[in-house]
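Obj: model holo form, ligand = biotinyl-5-AMP.
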Amino acid sequence: MTTGSLESGEFAALPSQLGTSRFGRPLHVIPRVTSTNDVARSLAEDGAGEGTAVLGLEQSGGRGRLGRSWASPAGGLYLSVILRPSLPVLLWPVLSLAAAVGSAEGIEAAAGMPVKLKWPNDLLVDARKVGGILLDSGAGFAVAGIGINVGASPGTLPEGAVSIDVALAPLARAVLQHLESAIDAVYADPAGTIRHWKARSVTLGRPVHVTGAEVIEGVAEDIDRDGALVVRTPSGVRRVVAGDVSLR
Ligand code: BT5
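Output (holo C-alpha coordinates):
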Protein backbone atom coordinates (compact mmCIF):
# COMPACT_ATOMS: atom_id res chain seq x y z
CA MET A 1 0.00 0.00 0.00
CA THR A 2 1.11 3.55 -0.59
CA THR A 3 0.66 5.58 2.54
CA GLY A 4 0.07 9.23 1.79
CA SER A 5 1.98 11.90 3.55
CA LEU A 6 0.05 13.33 6.47
CA GLU A 7 2.12 16.46 6.04
CA SER A 8 0.52 17.12 2.68
CA GLY A 9 -2.56 19.07 1.67
CA GLU A 10 -5.75 19.42 3.60
CA PHE A 11 -5.07 16.35 5.79
CA ALA A 12 -1.93 17.72 7.43
CA ALA A 13 -3.66 18.87 10.59
CA LEU A 14 -6.32 16.17 10.74
CA PRO A 15 -4.70 13.75 13.24
CA SER A 16 -4.14 16.52 15.80
CA GLN A 17 -7.70 17.84 15.38
CA LEU A 18 -9.58 14.60 15.63
CA GLY A 19 -10.94 14.97 19.15
CA THR A 20 -11.47 11.21 19.40
CA SER A 21 -9.93 8.80 21.87
CA ARG A 22 -9.57 5.74 19.59
CA PHE A 23 -11.03 6.39 16.16
CA GLY A 24 -8.49 7.55 13.59
CA ARG A 25 -5.60 6.63 15.90
CA PRO A 26 -3.72 5.88 13.80
CA LEU A 27 -5.17 7.26 10.57
CA HIS A 28 -3.61 5.94 7.34
CA VAL A 29 -4.26 8.34 4.45
CA ILE A 30 -3.83 6.66 1.07
CA PRO A 31 -4.19 8.76 -2.08
CA ARG A 32 -5.26 5.91 -4.37
CA VAL A 33 -6.34 2.56 -3.00
CA THR A 34 -8.22 -0.48 -4.31
CA SER A 35 -10.56 -0.67 -1.31
CA THR A 36 -10.04 0.88 2.12
CA ASN A 37 -11.92 -2.10 3.62
CA ASP A 38 -9.32 -4.49 2.19
CA VAL A 39 -6.43 -2.45 3.62
CA ALA A 40 -8.18 -2.23 7.01
CA ARG A 41 -8.85 -5.97 6.99
CA SER A 42 -5.19 -6.77 6.45
CA LEU A 43 -4.20 -4.32 9.22
CA ALA A 44 -6.73 -6.02 11.53
CA GLU A 45 -5.35 -9.46 10.63
CA ASP A 46 -1.91 -8.12 11.63
CA GLY A 47 -3.34 -7.14 15.02
CA ALA A 48 -4.25 -3.44 14.61
CA GLY A 49 -6.51 -2.20 17.38
CA GLU A 50 -10.00 -0.74 17.43
CA GLY A 51 -10.15 2.69 15.86
CA THR A 52 -7.31 2.18 13.38
CA ALA A 53 -8.62 3.92 10.27
CA VAL A 54 -7.85 4.00 6.57
CA LEU A 55 -8.86 7.03 4.50
CA GLY A 56 -8.66 6.70 0.73
CA LEU A 57 -8.89 9.72 -1.54
CA GLU A 58 -9.95 7.58 -4.49
CA GLN A 59 -10.67 3.84 -4.84
CA SER A 60 -10.08 1.71 -7.91
CA GLY A 61 -11.98 -1.30 -6.50
CA GLY A 62 -14.51 0.18 -4.08
CA ARG A 63 -16.90 -2.50 -2.84
CA GLY A 64 -20.58 -2.48 -1.93
CA ARG A 65 -22.45 -5.38 -0.36
CA LEU A 66 -23.04 -8.74 -2.04
CA GLY A 67 -20.16 -8.37 -4.50
CA ARG A 68 -21.39 -5.06 -5.88
CA SER A 69 -19.08 -2.19 -6.69
CA TRP A 70 -18.95 1.29 -5.17
CA ALA A 71 -18.20 4.18 -7.53
CA SER A 72 -15.30 5.98 -5.86
CA PRO A 73 -14.14 9.00 -7.89
CA ALA A 74 -11.46 11.29 -6.46
CA GLY A 75 -12.82 13.75 -3.91
CA GLY A 76 -15.25 11.43 -2.11
CA LEU A 77 -14.84 10.12 1.42
CA TYR A 78 -13.73 6.49 1.57
CA LEU A 79 -13.12 5.55 5.18
CA SER A 80 -12.71 2.22 6.96
CA VAL A 81 -12.38 1.76 10.70
CA ILE A 82 -11.36 -1.41 12.54
CA LEU A 83 -13.70 -2.51 15.33
CA ARG A 84 -12.99 -5.09 18.02
CA PRO A 85 -16.61 -5.49 19.09
CA SER A 86 -17.53 -6.26 22.67
CA LEU A 87 -20.88 -7.61 21.53
CA PRO A 88 -22.22 -11.11 20.83
CA VAL A 89 -21.73 -11.97 17.13
CA LEU A 90 -25.52 -12.19 16.75
CA LEU A 91 -25.64 -8.43 17.37
CA TRP A 92 -22.87 -7.49 14.93
CA PRO A 93 -25.41 -6.41 12.27
CA VAL A 94 -26.37 -3.64 14.71
CA LEU A 95 -22.80 -2.28 14.28
CA SER A 96 -23.72 -1.48 10.71
CA LEU A 97 -26.79 0.46 11.89
CA ALA A 98 -24.62 2.28 14.46
CA ALA A 99 -22.12 3.18 11.73
CA ALA A 100 -24.99 4.56 9.64
CA VAL A 101 -26.24 6.67 12.57
CA GLY A 102 -22.73 8.00 13.30
CA SER A 103 -22.10 8.78 9.63
CA ALA A 104 -25.44 10.57 9.30
CA GLU A 105 -24.63 12.69 12.36
CA GLY A 106 -21.16 13.42 10.95
CA ILE A 107 -22.55 14.59 7.61
CA GLU A 108 -25.12 16.77 9.35
CA ALA A 109 -22.45 18.33 11.58
CA ALA A 110 -20.04 19.05 8.71
CA ALA A 111 -22.43 19.83 5.86
CA GLY A 112 -25.59 20.98 7.63
CA MET A 113 -28.18 19.01 5.70
CA PRO A 114 -30.54 16.39 7.16
CA VAL A 115 -29.63 12.77 6.47
CA LYS A 116 -32.13 9.90 6.46
CA LEU A 117 -31.48 6.16 6.53
CA LYS A 118 -32.85 3.33 4.42
CA TRP A 119 -32.46 -0.23 5.68
CA PRO A 120 -29.95 -1.66 5.93
CA ASN A 121 -27.18 0.79 5.13
CA ASP A 122 -28.11 3.65 2.81
CA LEU A 123 -27.45 7.27 3.76
CA LEU A 124 -29.94 9.54 1.97
CA VAL A 125 -30.01 13.25 1.25
CA ASP A 126 -33.15 14.52 -0.47
CA ALA A 127 -34.26 10.89 -0.91
CA ARG A 128 -31.17 10.02 -2.94
CA LYS A 129 -28.19 7.89 -1.92
CA VAL A 130 -25.27 10.01 -0.71
CA GLY A 131 -23.42 7.17 0.99
CA GLY A 132 -23.41 3.61 2.22
CA ILE A 133 -21.92 1.35 4.86
CA LEU A 134 -20.16 -1.93 4.27
CA LEU A 135 -19.50 -4.03 7.37
CA ASP A 136 -16.92 -6.78 6.84
CA SER A 137 -15.93 -9.17 9.57
CA GLY A 138 -13.11 -11.54 10.47
CA ALA A 139 -11.88 -13.43 13.51
CA GLY A 140 -12.43 -11.07 16.44
CA PHE A 141 -12.78 -7.95 14.35
CA ALA A 142 -15.11 -6.07 12.06
CA VAL A 143 -14.35 -3.33 9.55
CA ALA A 144 -16.87 -0.51 9.17
CA GLY A 145 -16.47 0.92 5.66
CA ILE A 146 -18.13 4.23 4.89
CA GLY A 147 -18.46 5.79 1.47
CA ILE A 148 -19.83 9.35 1.12
CA ASN A 149 -20.13 11.14 -2.23
CA VAL A 150 -18.45 14.53 -2.16
CA GLY A 151 -18.01 16.99 -5.02
CA ALA A 152 -18.54 14.34 -7.69
CA SER A 153 -18.58 15.49 -11.31
CA PRO A 154 -21.71 14.71 -13.32
CA GLY A 155 -21.57 11.23 -14.80
CA THR A 156 -19.18 9.75 -12.24
CA LEU A 157 -21.91 8.32 -10.00
CA PRO A 158 -24.70 5.87 -10.80
CA GLU A 159 -28.28 6.99 -11.33
CA GLY A 160 -30.07 7.72 -8.06
CA ALA A 161 -26.90 8.90 -6.33
CA VAL A 162 -26.32 12.38 -4.99
CA SER A 163 -23.14 14.15 -3.98
CA ILE A 164 -22.62 16.90 -1.42
CA ASP A 165 -20.22 19.84 -1.50
CA VAL A 166 -18.23 20.02 1.69
CA ALA A 167 -14.53 20.17 2.59
CA LEU A 168 -13.21 16.63 2.97
CA ALA A 169 -10.98 16.95 6.05
CA PRO A 170 -13.68 18.50 8.30
CA LEU A 171 -16.13 15.86 7.03
CA ALA A 172 -13.66 13.07 7.85
CA ARG A 173 -13.14 14.53 11.30
CA ALA A 174 -16.87 14.87 12.01
CA VAL A 175 -17.59 11.35 10.77
CA LEU A 176 -14.81 9.83 12.91
CA GLN A 177 -16.01 11.72 16.00
CA HIS A 178 -19.66 10.77 15.60
CA LEU A 179 -18.76 7.22 14.62
CA GLU A 180 -16.75 6.76 17.80
CA SER A 181 -19.70 7.98 19.89
CA ALA A 182 -22.14 5.79 17.98
CA ILE A 183 -19.96 2.69 18.38
CA ASP A 184 -19.40 3.37 22.09
CA ALA A 185 -23.17 3.75 22.41
CA VAL A 186 -23.91 0.45 20.66
CA TYR A 187 -21.51 -1.42 22.94
CA ALA A 188 -23.32 0.01 25.96
CA ASP A 189 -26.91 -0.20 24.70
CA PRO A 190 -27.68 -1.85 21.31
CA ALA A 191 -31.40 -1.18 21.76
CA GLY A 192 -30.63 2.56 21.96
CA THR A 193 -28.85 2.37 18.61
CA ILE A 194 -31.91 0.81 17.04
CA ARG A 195 -34.08 3.61 18.45
CA HIS A 196 -31.72 6.24 16.98
CA TRP A 197 -31.65 4.43 13.64
CA LYS A 198 -35.47 4.22 13.57
CA ALA A 199 -35.77 7.95 14.24
CA ARG A 200 -33.99 8.59 10.90
CA SER A 201 -35.67 5.83 8.93
CA VAL A 202 -37.46 6.33 5.63
CA THR A 203 -38.23 2.60 5.52
CA LEU A 204 -40.58 1.95 8.43
CA GLY A 205 -44.30 2.18 7.85
CA ARG A 206 -43.84 2.03 4.07
CA PRO A 207 -44.86 -0.65 1.57
CA VAL A 208 -41.64 -2.38 0.48
CA HIS A 209 -40.36 -4.88 -2.02
CA VAL A 210 -37.47 -6.82 -0.53
CA THR A 211 -35.03 -8.91 -2.52
CA GLY A 212 -32.76 -11.21 -0.58
CA ALA A 213 -32.81 -14.97 -0.12
CA GLU A 214 -36.35 -14.59 -1.50
CA VAL A 215 -38.63 -11.79 -2.68
CA ILE A 216 -40.98 -10.37 -0.06
CA GLU A 217 -43.73 -7.78 -0.53
CA GLY A 218 -45.29 -6.13 2.48
CA VAL A 219 -45.14 -3.23 4.88
CA ALA A 220 -41.86 -2.57 6.72
CA GLU A 221 -43.01 -2.67 10.31
CA ASP A 222 -39.97 -2.62 12.57
CA ILE A 223 -36.27 -3.26 13.11
CA ASP A 224 -35.84 -6.03 15.67
CA ARG A 225 -33.20 -6.12 18.39
CA ASP A 226 -30.74 -7.95 16.11
CA GLY A 227 -31.05 -5.28 13.40
CA ALA A 228 -33.26 -7.39 11.10
CA LEU A 229 -36.10 -5.78 9.11
CA VAL A 230 -39.55 -6.98 10.12
CA VAL A 231 -42.02 -7.00 7.22
CA ARG A 232 -45.76 -7.63 7.53
CA THR A 233 -46.99 -9.60 4.52
CA PRO A 234 -50.45 -10.96 3.72
CA SER A 235 -49.21 -14.38 4.90
CA GLY A 236 -47.69 -13.18 8.17
CA VAL A 237 -44.69 -11.40 9.60
CA ARG A 238 -41.29 -12.05 7.97
CA ARG A 239 -37.85 -11.21 9.27
CA VAL A 240 -35.17 -10.14 6.78
CA VAL A 241 -31.54 -10.37 7.85
CA ALA A 242 -29.90 -9.39 4.54
CA GLY A 243 -31.37 -7.95 1.40
CA ASP A 244 -32.26 -4.89 -0.60
CA VAL A 245 -35.34 -2.80 -0.09
CA SER A 246 -37.24 -0.76 -2.67
CA LEU A 247 -39.83 1.59 -1.27
CA ARG A 248 -43.22 1.40 -2.98
C1 BT5 B 1 -23.17 0.05 -0.05
O1 BT5 B 1 -23.35 -1.12 -0.75
O2 BT5 B 1 -23.92 0.99 -0.05
C2 BT5 B 1 -21.87 0.08 0.74
C3 BT5 B 1 -20.89 1.05 0.17
C4 BT5 B 1 -19.65 1.13 1.02
C5 BT5 B 1 -18.53 1.86 0.34
C6 BT5 B 1 -17.36 2.07 1.27
S1 BT5 B 1 -16.19 3.18 0.62
C7 BT5 B 1 -15.08 2.79 1.86
C8 BT5 B 1 -15.16 1.28 2.04
N1 BT5 B 1 -14.28 0.60 1.11
C9 BT5 B 1 -14.97 -0.14 0.21
O3 BT5 B 1 -14.47 -0.81 -0.70
N2 BT5 B 1 -16.29 -0.03 0.46
C10 BT5 B 1 -16.55 0.80 1.61
P1 BT5 B 1 -24.70 -1.52 -1.49
O4 BT5 B 1 -25.88 -1.34 -0.59
O5 BT5 B 1 -24.43 -2.89 -2.01
O6 BT5 B 1 -24.84 -0.48 -2.64
C11 BT5 B 1 -24.13 -0.63 -3.83
C12 BT5 B 1 -25.04 -0.12 -4.93
O7 BT5 B 1 -25.18 1.30 -4.79
C13 BT5 B 1 -24.44 -0.34 -6.32
O8 BT5 B 1 -24.89 -1.58 -6.85
C14 BT5 B 1 -24.98 0.84 -7.10
O9 BT5 B 1 -26.31 0.61 -7.51
C15 BT5 B 1 -25.06 1.94 -6.05
N3 BT5 B 1 -23.83 2.75 -5.99
C16 BT5 B 1 -22.56 2.42 -6.38
N4 BT5 B 1 -21.72 3.43 -6.14
C17 BT5 B 1 -22.46 4.44 -5.59
C18 BT5 B 1 -22.16 5.73 -5.11
N5 BT5 B 1 -20.93 6.22 -5.12
N6 BT5 B 1 -23.19 6.47 -4.62
C19 BT5 B 1 -24.47 6.00 -4.58
N7 BT5 B 1 -24.79 4.78 -5.01
C20 BT5 B 1 -23.82 3.99 -5.50
